[in-house]
Amino acid sequence: MEFHQLAAPALLDALPDPAVVIDGDGWILTGNRAANDLLATNRTPAGGNVVDFLPEHERSRLNPLVWLRRWGDEPRAPELAHVRLWCRDGNGVDKPVRVRVGRLPTDPPSYLVILVDVTEEQARQYRIRSAHRLAARVMAVSADAIVHVDEGGRIIYANPSAEALFEYPAGGLLGEPLANLLPERFRRGHEGFMRAFAAAPAPSRMLDERAEIRGLTRSGEEIPLAASITKVTTDRGLVFSANLRDLRPQYAARAELARSEARFRTVFEHARQAMALIAPDGRVQAINPAGRRLLQGGVEPVGARFAELPYRTADPAATAAALRRAIERALAGEPYRAGVRVVLPDTGEQQLDFTLSPVVSGGSAFAVIAEAHQLPDGPE
Fold first, then answer.
1. Which residues 6+ apart lie within 8 Å of 166 measured at CB?
2. pLDDT of 223-272, one tens digit each?
């Protein structure tokens, strides 16, 4: 059989998409098997009206016959690329469909209506939009500065943290060259890095793999930054996404910690009472000069077991045994206190108040502080 011998019903059934033929008033003249499947009918829905397959909310939203006739006369109407109609099948299930309409050369006019079920497509688009909204929300509230840059090096997105970090008003970074956020001496090197990164296979990179990263605020202040960059290929070319973190708070915290440690070291080293820091394994982590005076010479105490140090007591073996038990109790969270006597070479016999204090975190001791200071002579 040649093509011109094919009857219209055979051609209609050969279409992979659901299709019906309607007259100018919306009455269905015929339909193919795919239309039967879409509309969940056991037979071609001929004789019914296309409006019967629309849910009530769709009928009240638009006049389907007016639009079908318009689309038939203007098959390339721009809105056809975006419009979705809802149809209700024989089981009462609403389905979103994309509609294409063609006017047939009949008298009176009739129309070929092709329906494409877009349920899965719509669900996929919803998931994509939801993911985009979530990503946009995460970037908007991120404490890190996030900047997106096109292949020309211009900023196409900057979150509020980036605007605050570089001292720009809302929207003030859009369209600006990324180079404006770098000190002058780093700009040429950064341009070379971006070209190399664009050509490299790696999709992301930490920028601190190279020289120190520094940014430049709108007021001209240089700021230290931790940065990573990711590239994504889009339909408009490569887009680079940079995550930037202000290191000034971290550097300030380090400086304060260094000052605090220096103050502690000064007090520790010059304290008149003997002090030592003991690790959980019973070894000495630090000991001050006053603590070293309580030991017999020739032994380096740091790294040695605190209980086994050569103390200037009358019975070193008994002292070691007592200290081992006391340290075990202290590591279990129980403070220890006792009076001890030592004989120093320059001042003779002295009575000391000796304590072991556990340093506790999370319910367990991670260190012990040992202290000993001289007591006035008197009965023990």
1. 145, 173, 181, 215, 216, 217, 218
2. 999 888 898 888 778 899 999 999 999 899 999 999 998 998 898 999 98
Q: Cα–Cα distance between 199 and 189 in angstroms, integer?
A: 16
Nearest Cα residue to 99 out of 131, 130, 70, 124:
70
The tokens for 331 are 């590591």
Instruction: Output the DSSP codes for 65-132.
Output: HHHHHHHHH-TT-GGGGT--EEEE-TTS-EEEEEEEEEEES-SS-EEEEEEEE-HHHHHHHHHHHHHH
Q: Kindly report, residue by residue over 205-216, the tens digit of the pLDDT.
A: 665 544 468 999
Looking at the chain, how many residues does it have? Answer: 380
Structural tokens at position 272 = 């008149």
Type of residue found at 69: R
Q: Which residue's entry shows tokens 């956020």?
A: 181
State whether the Cα torsion 134-136-139-141 is positive or negative: negative
Secondary structure of residue 174 in the 3-state scheme: coil
pLDDT in tens, 142-194: 889 999 999 889 999 999 999 999 999 999 999 999 999 999 988 888 888 88
Task: State the alpha helices, DSSP H only, in the chain.
Answer: 8-14, 33-39, 56-61, 64-73, 119-141, 160-165, 184-199, 248-270, 289-292, 316-331
- Which residues are CB-contacts of 220 (< 8 A; sequence separation ≥ 6)? none
Q: Nearest CA to 241 among 255, 231, 250?
A: 231
Please give the torsion angle defined by the CA atoms of residues 196, 202, 204 and 210, in that order, rounded to the nearest 10 degrees.
Answer: -50
